[in-house]
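Protein Record: Sequence and Backbone Structure Tokens
======================================================
Tokens: labelled as protein backbone structure tokens, with as many entries as the chain has residues.
Task: work out the structure tokens from the sequence, keeping to the layout shown below.
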Amino acid sequence: MNEEVSLADLLKSFWRAKFYMIFCALIALIVAAIFISVSVAEYRATMIVAPADGYALGDYASSVDNSRIAALPFWRPKDSEGASTDFYRFIYTMRGTQAAKILMQDQAVVSRVNEMLKEPINTPEELSLYLNRNIQIDPLGATPLRRLIYKHQNAEFSVALLRKLHLVADQMIRRDRRRQSQSRIEYLENSLRKTTNPDHRKGITNLLMQQEHVQMLANLDEAYAAIVVEPASASPRPVWPNDVLIYTVAALLGLLLGFLIWSLRWSGRHSKR
């Protein structure tokens, strides 16, 4: 019949195993020190972005009744939470293949990224995969704001990459919106020349004004899809390796290993009797 082990018995066992535990803990701390010394330090860069202000007409206008078009404000297409769909497009675009293709043209970016990789990145698809794995995007509470996080061994580069990704993704969306609105303007102007019905001309004119406003927003020298709420900045100290965490875990594992070794030796000696 197995006897229950009391707390006092357990403490006595720890005391008997103290030399094993101390020895193994010291070995574990030495291994931890070696691991920290050979580990590559990483800095953590963060940036907070939010949906851009201003309004831009989306596809919604084509479904609005002509009698309501005159009162239709300039707006961006929004989701149920009120955030611009251009902003969500920005979130996915910044880690996509098209953005990666533009970044691949900057050899300084590619070389810095490859510093931390065993196999270098050679294609936009590979860079996009790297960005999806290493660019962390966290929501801030119930708001549409997002925190962008990137870790790299070079603090300045980690900040620079977040800035570049924001610029590239925002400019891509701006470019597409500008092209889209220009195509619509040309179509609406052509339709206006062919239309003689006063009501139709009024509706087309209102739609044309909306698209011209889109062009104005796209040509402004400011963020189009996502504004920077908190500029990119890097942590003052490396976030990896975490010396305190590593030493603490190593010491605990060493103590546990020492106790297990003592227990096995103690049980082995008693089983021979």
Residues 17-39+247-272 form one domain. The longest helix spans residues 155-194.
